[in-house]
Amino acid sequence: MKCIRILLFPIVPFYYGVTWLRNVLYDLGIKTAKTYNFPTICVGNISAGGTGKTPMVEYLIRLLKTDFNVATLSRGYGRRTKGFILASHRSSAETIGDEPFQFFTKFKDTIQVAVDENRQRGISKLRALKNQPTLIVLDDAFQHRKVAAKLNILLSTYSNLYCNDMVLPTGNLREPRQGARRAQIIIVTKCPKHLSSEQKNSIVAKLKPKAFQEVFFSSISYACKVIGYANSLTLNELKEFTLVTGIANAKPLVDFLEMKGLHFKHLKFSDHHVFSKNDINTIAKHKLIITTEKDYVRLITKDRLIKNLYYLPISITIDRSTDFKTLLMSKIKA
Q1: Structurally, how many domains does the chain consist of?
Q2: Burial 75-90 (b: 16+ CB within 10 A, else e)
Q3: Alpha carbon of 224 to those of 103, 234, 267, 268, 313: distances in Å?
Q4: Does residue 125 belong to any structural domain of this protein?
Q5: In a domain, 84, yes or no
Q6: Cα 25 to Cα 10: distance, rounded to the nearest angstrom
Q7: What is the pTM of this model?
Q8: Residues 37-81: pLDDT tens digits?
């Protein structure tokens, strides 16, 4: 794969030029972005996948749902439907996408979850609801410049900072590094838990944030037990199992399980993999299966119940969490 990417390097200037020009047209106002008179928060990246958008959106939901009537709006990547859909008890990963379905499964009693590939239309539909949201979190919409969010939160992984990368197809950037200037908050995700002040300062120096940008650091926390359809198991109870992943970067999870001294086989699928009946049958043959929460909502459906399937919950912690919340609220209310 790396060799193929190197061979595709001649395409890099073309991709760079097209995405750079598109941003310039928006920056100059030649292409227009719609603004709104209520809070909209965009969570995204300029790298292709695997930066931790889903746990970050969940973090924001928990932080804001008591003060606002929160809604999330996603494209609904990988769904088999089109247009605007408001999640309901009839929804599934196939109708609204795995990440929105995960949001709905966790927070359906407290927030609204919607999908629409046209973010402007999606916002209009949400605001037309009787139970009108007072704050909308736009999931993975950093490149969707037809909407000018009130606050842009940019994520970049500790192991692959955007400042050290180049655009597709040789690199992983969806657009040139200058695009990071649109963010007011930059979060370095998937950091080691005990990152020193010197290490953080070194990273900030590499990122070279503008005066109006604030940099935070987050790390992943894994639960001490896995959750199944009818019960849960502690990690100590996991003797041998099969790990099934269909995410962009499974390395942090694999590293965590290995650090715990657990023995497992790893069935690795591509990000947002649509599990076929053959996949389901193959997976179901294993005695004990552990997967991610995002994969779990795709594997568990009414007609594909795998009783020996469990997922490992994750959450994130943000350094200077009080400062983060204060800054977040000030940006929203400004």
Answers
A1: 2
A2: bbbbbeeeebbbbeee
A3: 21, 6, 22, 23, 9
A4: no
A5: no
A6: 24
A7: 0.94
A8: 999 999 999 998 789 999 999 999 999 999 999 999 999 998 999
**Cα–Cα distance for residue pair 286/283, rounded to 1 Å:** 6
Query: For the chain, what is the total number of helices (H) and then of strands (E)?
Result: 11, 15
- Rounded to an integer, what distance in angstroms lies between the CA atom of residue 133 and that of residue 41? 13
Question: Mind listing the pLDDT tens digit for each residue in 204-245?
Answer: 999 999 999 999 999 999 999 999 988 999 999 998 999 999
Residue 322 shares a structural domain with residue 303: no
- CA distance readout (Å), 247 to 10, 172, 308: 28, 15, 20
In angstroms, rounded to a whole number, what is the distance separating the alpha carbons of residues 200 and 219? Answer: 13
Beta strands 225-228 and 263-268, pairing class: unpaired
Neighbours of 165 (CB within 10 A): 17
- Mapping DSSP to helix (H, G, I), strand (E, B) and coil, where does residue 177 land? helix
Q: What range does the domain containing 48 cover?
A: 2-68+134-220+317-333
Q: What CATH number is given to the structural domain containing 322?
A: 3.40.50
| Cα atoms found within 13 Å of the Cα of residue 91, Cβ hemisphere only | 26
Cα(37)–Cα(49) distance, integer angstroms: 30
Co-location of 283 and 189 in the same domain: no
